[in-house]
TrEMBL record:
It comes from Dyadobacter beijingensis. The keyword Cell membrane does not apply. The keyword NAD does not apply. It comes from the Bacteria. This is DUF5009 domain-containing protein. The chain crosses the membrane at residues 102-123, 135-153, 160-180, 238-259, 271-293, 305-325, 334-358, 378-399.
Length: 407
């Protein structure tokens, strides 16, 4: 998961860090870690505040169509996996690793990501929760295909193949949904966790991408029930699905393209123009698909339009961090993010599994109402800020001791 930059396009030179990529990854992980602030509780305590309502919106996932800042966490993380791949491959080649050995590392990484995702989703269950819509499992399912594509394009050095594969993935995924029949008059809505008159349901052709009445939902009703479960799987409450790993692979492919350009860019001006132009094209395609009703922008089922839209956002964010951190050489100002970004798997594990433990420890040692110093309305903000500080100090200590979790 670590990202490297070689001095020139050769497999024989030792790699260096790309600070802007680490900063971007750190920003993404910080957004995930910042969930401990629980801004929704502050917004509820101050319902007349547009400021807290705005922050609450951007720390929450939109119900179905659209995008918030929080919705960009998973696509950014997936995008950066693709960005890292050319450097990871160059690093392994510089160590004279054979192709079979590279494939061994790839398959091992894929399996670890899948199993780690299942483990984290099973932490509060009575038995293993076999679910595959988690960020880590989604990346793990598509990673071997990404590596194969990266390896093939490293040999022929042509972007046309990558763009062609991306197009096939997105068109094929859209066709799968479009060909799945819409609910009829006798459809049993109780098996979907939603209703026919849900306010976020789409109409017309776009209805093929409604919550839990689509092709991916039907696949999971078969696939997830192949595993032992406490009760038969009927629907995912958020509308998420296993098959989203296919368009998520599309997001990683966009990252692979960005990583190849970043690694071989003749100049920073060339790279920034290429990134901006690509982002503009992706935005235009996504908005055309969305507003014509052909394909809505929905993150929860990772529609092709979402792949394009979030990919455009990722290109712009990478451009911004590259310009400020690397071109303008402001690394010191972003050190706090670089600390997080260089150990993203550790940050992910800490954010996913230790927040509640740290919160409870504060209550034990500081008192049950230690976080009410500014009133009950800001209690989650106070405790969350302290938890964030502890998380960052742990990562800072690991950074100083050069303890990095690699997969």
């Amino acid at each position: 998961m670590l990202t490297y930059l070689t001095l020139k396009d050769t497999a024989t030179l030792p790699p260096q860090r790309v600070s802007s990529v680490d900063a971007y990854r750190g920003f993404v992980m910080f957004l995930m870690m910042a969930e401990v602030l629980r801004l929704s509780r502050v917004a509820e305590a101050y319902p007349d505040s547009a400021f807290w309502a705005f922050l609450d919106f951007h720390q929450s996932h939109v119900p179905w169509v659209g995008c918030s800042l929080h919705d960009l966490i998973q696509p950014s993380f997936s995008f950066l996996v693709g960005v890292a791949l050319p450097y990871s491959m160059a690093s392994r080649a510089s160590k004279n690793q054979t192709v079979p050995m590279m494939w061994f590392h790839t398959i091992r990484r894929s399996l670890i990501l899948i199993l780690l995702g299942i483990f984290l989703r099973s932490m509060h269950s009575e038995q293993t929760n076999f679910t595959f819509e988690d960020t880590l499992t989604q990346i793990g399912l598509g990673y071997p295909i990404l590596f194969a594509l990266g390896f093939a394009t490293e040999k022929i050095r042509r972007d046309a193949l990558i763009w062609g594969v991306l197009a096939v993935i997105l068109v094929g995924y859209a066709a799968l949904f479009a060909l799945y029949p819409l609910p009829g008059p006798d459809f049993d809505w109780s098996q979907t966790g939603t209703t026919a008159d849900w306010e976020h349901n789409l109409t017309g052709f776009a209805a093929h991408w409604n919550k839990n009445t689509n092709a991916a939902w039907a696949f999971d009703r078969w696939f997830l029930n192949l595993f032992p479960r406490e009760k038969p799987f009927e629907f995912n409450g958020g509308g998420y699905s296993t098959l989203s790993f296919i368009p998520t692979l599309g997001t990683m492919i966009l990252g692979l393209i960005a990583g190849k350009w970043l690694k071989s860019a003749p100049s920073s001006e060339w790279l920034l123009k290429r990134f901006a132009m690509t982002a503009g094209i992706l935005f235009a395609l996504a908005l055309i698909l969305h507003f014509t009703g052909l394909n809505p922008i929905v993150k929860r089922i990772w529609t092709p339009a979402w792949t394009l839209f979030s990919g455009g956002c990722a290109f712009l964010l990478l451009s911004a961090f590259y310009f400020v951190v690397d071109v303008k050489d402001r690394k010191s100002s972003f050190f706090w993010l670089i600390v997080i970004g260089t150990n993203s798997i550790a940050a992910y594990l800490i954010a996913d599994g230790f927040g509640s433990f740290i919160r409870q420890s504060f209550k034990i040692h500081l008192g049950q109402r230690y976080d009410a110093v500014f009133g009950d309305g800001y209690a989650s903000l106070v405790s969350g800020a302290l938890i964030l500080l502890v998380m960052w100090l742990i990562l800072r200590w690991m950074y100083k001791k050069k303890i990095f979790i690699k997969i």
